[in-house]
Amino acid sequence: FDGALVEALAPGTDLSGAIRADASVEVKDGAVTGTLDTRSPALTLRGVGPWAASGRGRLQGPQFLLEALEAKGYGGRVVAGGTLAVVASAKTDVRVRAEGIDVAALAAAFTSADVPVTSRADGSLRWATTGWDVDAGMGTGEVALLASPRAATAPAVPGLPLSGTGRLRIAGRTVALEGA
């Protein structure tokens, strides 16, 4: 199926690209179990991509256990896992990690402009709530910029090798970056 189906089911995601999915669902003695395995060679989310993505998970009672999600793009990767609530009373607890993302390439995808930075970004985040109540959600994480070695050929725009770290704190819909 195509990301347009996801957009139709979850308006505002602006997801595009072909997605291959294998799913199984079983209902036995009133209990529902199931598995999901997905893969896409080139997903774009809100105009940012392409990401080569794959993921797998399974229904586990009132939660979907995201066993592995990986998206490769912009010279690095994003991985995630955790539990996602299927019912409003269940817990959602997700961990996300980014590794080696090319800051200039990612910023250019958002702004359509050359960004004069030669750095990679790493980060981690843990976010939890009950159900999908974003206003009650709490999260903590870290982000780091790591100076990249200069390219063998001169880039179109010279870049600054920035480095530094910061901590993220999320409370509801408020995100704070500390120590950056």
By helix and strand content, what is the structural category?
Answer: mainly beta
The amount of beta strand, in percent, is over 45%
Share of helix, binned: under 10%
Calculate Rg over CA atoms.
Answer: 19 Å
Strand runs, count: 11
Number of helices: 2
Uncertain residue segments? none
Quick one: biggest sheet? 11 strands, antiparallel
Q: What is the general shape?
A: globular
Mean pLDDT over the full residue set: 89
The end-to-end distance, rounded to whole angstroms, is 41 Å
Give helix and strand order, one letter per element, not per position.
HEEEEEEEHEEEE
Structural features, described:
This protein has 180 residues and is mainly β. 9% of the residues lie in helices and 59% in strands. Strands 1, 2, 3, 4, 5, 6, 7, 8, 9, 10 and 11 form an eleven-stranded antiparallel sheet that branches. It is globular. The termini are far apart. The mean pLDDT is 89.
